[in-house]
Amino acid sequence: MVYIVSWDEFVDRSVQLFKSDPESTRYVVKYRHCDGKLVLKVTDNKECLKFKTDQAQEAKKMEKLNNIFFTLMARGPDVDLSEVNGKEQVETQPVKKGRGRKQ
């Protein structure tokens, strides 16, 4: 088990691994608060892919990977992944700028 250094390579290889054998592929997330380390692991009992980070920026990318795996598990391995986003775009109302507390 070696760690993959590049995030994009980890995502691509993880998706390929899931598509090749969706019945036995597992996705594990492990976070150690005392170390501040996040470890992601995707395995099918033959091949094991691991990614380790301590950067908050990388942890935010994990949400997109979760959505990719949720989509693959729910819709099947033949789904088009180009429409999967990290966060759904929600229209927000413009924030009113006030003058502070009314007296």
What gap, in angstroms, lies between the N and C termini? 64 Å
Strand order of the largest sheet: 1-2-3
Structure summary, number of beta strands: 3
The largest β sheet comes out as: 3 strands, antiparallel
Helix content: 25-40%
What kind of assembly state do the chains in view correspond to? single chain
Rounded to an integer in angstroms, the radius of gyration calculated over CA atoms is 18 Å
Which structural class is indicated by helix and strand composition?
Answer: alpha+beta
Approximate strand percentage: 15-25%
How would you sum up the global shape? extended
Order of SSEs: HEEEH
Q: Can you characterise this structure?
A:
- The protein is an alpha+beta fold and 103 residues long.
- The chain is 33% helix and 19% strand.
- The protein has two helices and three strands, in the order H-E-E-E-H.
- Strands 1-2-3 form a three-stranded antiparallel sheet, with helices on one face.
- It is extended and about 70 Å long.
- About 7% of the residues have low confidence.
- It is found in: Cytoplasm.
- This is Signal recognition particle 9 kDa protein.
- Belongs to the SRP9 family.
- Its main location: cytoplasm.
- GO terms for molecular function: 7S RNA binding.
Task: Provide tags for this entry.
103 residues; 3-stranded antiparallel beta sheet; alpha+beta; 3 strands
List the helices and strands and how they pair.
Blueprint: H1 7-20, E1 26-32, E2 37-43, E3 48-53, H2 56-75
Antiparallel strand pairs: 1-2, 2-3
